[in-house]
Amino acid sequence: MPKITFVGAGSTVFAKNILGDCMHVEALKDSQIALYDIDGTRLGESRKMLETLNQTINQGRADIRAYHGPEMRREALTGADYVVNAVQVGGYEPCTVLDFELPKKHGLRQTIGDTVGIGGVLRGLRTAHALLPMAREMEDVCPEAWFLNYTNPMSIVTGLMLEASGIRTVGLCHSVQVCVPVLLWVLGLHEDVTEVRSKIAGINHMGWLLEITDAGRDLYPEIKRRAEAKNREARPAGAKKHFDMVRFEMMKHFGYYVTESSEHSAEYSPYWIKSQFPGLIEEFNIPLDEYPRRCVRQIEEWKGLAEKLVHSDSLTHDKTQEYGAYIMEAMATDVPIKIGGNVLNRGFIPNLPASAVVEVPCLVDRNGVQGTYVGDLPEQCAALCRSHIAVHRLVLEAALTGRRDAIYQAAYLDPHTASELPLDTIRQLVDELLAAESEWLPEYR
Q: Is residue 344, in this structure, part of any structural domain at all?
């Protein structure tokens, strides 16, 4: 009987997707499910929801238990075969608000701020502070477990577990799964293709669509033609905008489409959110402060969802495309699958550093998650990836050594931050953020 521990189980919708999927898999139906969170109210809601699903779609076969607070985490982890990580350390309030509002006082604006930029640096540090003790506990009580990480910043959190512990870890993200379908749909090609094949590799949120064919025919020439025409039509003032303008323009100049959305991608390079060129925001439809708005919207929507998910005795669930349950099934049954996973770069992409966490095609079976060889990225794509790998490495160095100067250096090297602020201002901003978030980062007081 497998044991699945879900850390951050107060994320009720995501817990429903991953664990509801598991209840559709014969090899996982009899699992012991350990739900862990520091928020007792949200934990209780998730438990009630999953107990309902266990009856409506799983004949009551799973054993569901809830564990609240740091003092019960060790018990929740003990004997786990799989640990799903979905924590958000510091929450929307106050930490996400601080990650956005303090930089804005210095003229630094962000869209998402959970993976790169000054927001990504702080979120990475907060998450590392919370996960390092858990990694030690896992080495004691479930050393053979697989850690399935869904938490951003993906590369930093995955790298932390791989570098600071012996726990087998893979980082999982939606962006590879949805990249090709969204691209074909936006360009009106989705109904014209029958046998699409693609190859994607890079780093998380900066994976590159290296190849895309339909029945052997290269689709890139037509994709680029349609994308450039669509942007040309949308760019003038007053024209109807679309949501993927940044990625299409990056593809025009760098030659390849990138996996992560335009609202994310706008803050991944120094070309888009620029105080000296404010017209770019409107021209390329860049949604500043998108993540805080999204958080507020989700908090409001939860009031209605709670009644449906938590208090419905007839709740059901259809299997999603999330990788989690498919990975566990492949490991349990030895029936292999292919995924896009974040793993240590063991020569898979030779022109990226060996210490980097890369996002590459992976094979999953009873042996676990195994990355596959991709080869060199186009040099311009590799260079853009390296600009973020340097930041990832310095955040990890700070997290593992307590070095405050490594935090400054991570922020100095972030492409968007460096394009907007001078060194002294970046340092001052880091000091302000560390002081404001000292409850979650006491080692940097």
A: no
